[in-house]
Amino acid sequence: MAENVVVAGIGMTRFGKYLERGVRSLAEEAVGDVLKDAGVEPKQVQTAYFANAVAGLMTGQEMIRGQVALRNTGLLGIPIFNVENACASAASAFHLAWMAIASGQYDVALAVGAEKLFHEDKSRAFRAIGAAVDLEAINDLKKRMAEAAQASGKPPDEKGGQNRSFFMDIYATMTREYMKQSGATAEDFADVAVKNHDHGALNPKAQYRNRCTREEVLASRDISPPLTLMMCSPIGDGAAAAILCSEKAARTLGVRRPITVRASVLVSGRDRKADEPGAAERAAERAYQIAGVGPEDIDVAEIHDAAAPAELMIYEDLGFCKRGEGPRLLRSGTTKLGGKHVVNPSGGLLAKGHPIGATGIAQIVEICEQLRGTAGDRQVKGAKIGLTENGGGFLGRDAAAMSVHVFGA
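User: That's the sequence. What structure does it adopt?
Assistant: Structure tokens below.
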């Protein structure tokens, strides 16, 4: 019988621009915070899962990233596993830590994600992120995207991957298709950004704490039409960590505010037809089944709004509304603070930031804060059940990796 798993502690840096800091410095801060929060000593941690996506491409550090990043934390000597799974790296590390506890192999595990994307040469970060596709099929992908853009009357420039993330071109292609299917407008996408910046203004860990207006979002420079700058998540630096343990270990350790992991699901994308379920829909369906809940039971969610339109698409993938009704759900106010099913109270990737190897655990940190009732001005009142959705990479017409977690107070 699988062990019940709880989150015993959480910690993270503020996301932002840290030109003077490296991955190790960021990871050390998050690990120090999570150990303090859990009331756990380094010697009590039995295994660690370290997530990072692009250090190899940004700095050349490969193969033993976790051992290097955790070298000064007092954790060396235990099994340390290095996890790389594009933007879903941290959620994947958390899933592996959950498996380690659920299997009964370990009682206390650490999951930590750290990323450093800011560089004097910004195009270096864009090129690194752009590697999260099937490079053997990249020319075919670019051709299909260019043809779709030409047909829409919005031909792309040739600087994708140099002055922007290639993924914004992918999101733009998906967005144009979604607009036809749902009737979504640029104003809807701007309103997603406005909502998430409103939430981010209340989050001391957010990269951007400024509010914005619909007009400002629409007037920001074009990135890949119809996406403007403020509809796209920023690059950033940061780290986030969680300590997981069995319920028995939580009692032994005297954990004060355990949060139950009700479901931990990781799936891969696959080549599929347009009318077949995508990775997020498949992962969510499985997570709901395991957790014994439905989308209507989710009080608060952190989802992967790497581009503003993606939030509306994910509403539908997660079953928060019917197909094509994402814009209507947004307009209803249901997903903003004060609504019935609040989405991205942290500010989401758009405002909180997106240091890709840390993002998935940062989402979990926010949900744990919400379920503990310690989220301050952005607290979702009475939150009892929370969900995270974190995707990474692109394969065919889907995320290459997709994680959905469900948590209970």
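Residues 134-233+263-408 form a domain with the Peroxisomal Thiolase; Chain A, domain 1 fold (CATH 3.40.47.10).
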